[in-house]
Amino acid sequence: MRGRLTGISASLALAIALMIPHSVQGVGNSLSKDYLILLTSGTDSELVSSFGGVIYETFDSFDLVSASLDTSAYEALRLHPNVLKIEADAEVELEAQQEDYGAGLIGAKRYWDSNLTGKGIKIGIIDSGIDTKHFDLKVTGGASFVDYTTSYHDDNGHGTHVAGIVAALNNSVGYRGIAPNAELYALKVFDADGGGNISGLVHAIQWAIDHELDIINMSLGAQADSTALRLAIEQASKEGLLLVSAAGNDGTGSGNTVDYPAAYPQTIAVGAVDQQLRLAPFSSTGAAVDLTAPGVLVSSTYFQNQYAKMSGTSMATPYVSAMAALLMEAKPQATATEIRDLLQKNAKDLGASGRDPLFGQGLVQSFAFANAQINEVKSIETFTSYKGIAGTSQQLKVTAVYQDGTKKDVSKEAVWTSNNSNIVSVEANTLKYLKAGKTTVTATFSGISKTSTVTVTESNPIITITAPKELTGQKGQRMKIKIQAIRKNGTTITLTPDNSLWTTSNPAIFTTDRKGEITLKNRGTATLTIQKNGVKSTVVVKVR
Ligand SMILES: [Ca+2]
Ligand SMILES: [Ca+2]
Question: In CATH, which superfamily holds the domain spanning 102-371?
Answer without folding.
Answer: Peptidase S8/S53 domain (3.40.50.200)
